[in-house]
Amino acid sequence: MNASVTWLELVQQGDSVRSIATRAGVDNSTLSRQIKAGEIRSDMVIRIARGLGLDVIDALVAAGHVTAEEAGVTRPSSTLRLVTDQQLADEILRRLESVHDRVLDDPLNIPRTPDNVHELTLRSKPAEVDTEVDILDLPYVAHEPDEGIDDDDDESRYDI
Predict the structure, then answer these.
(1) Considering Cα of 45, then 46, then 52, then 53, what sign does the dihedral take?
(2) Is residue 38 within 8 Å of 2, Cβ to Cβ?
(3) What pTM does this model have?
């Protein structure tokens, strides 16, 4: 089976070919013919992607019409390095605000016990003494009670 037909099956999500064609603004018989022929042309992939609200470039790559290199698609970690701090913060805020079933401003109610709270150690002495208390001055790290930190764990990740 051609990659373009496989792509259509993935994005179809149970919708009929007629429904996809209608949403894409294309003739149902044209789309059906291309599916039966085993290849959906790139112009049809573009129209379907737009009709379904999908990224056109990602659709063309997934359908096998262009390679990721040709499309300039990069790994998410590489792309993230290109965005500004403000763009990243805006995206994080957008994602947090989209969570409707959880309240993120309530404190966690995890009991503080010797098993789940460990004192942090400074890697080096600070050059200046900060007399103002803030969150960075808190010398403890907490984790779920059933997630112990073993003696052989790399605790340097907990150091400030």
Answers:
(1) positive
(2) yes
(3) 0.47
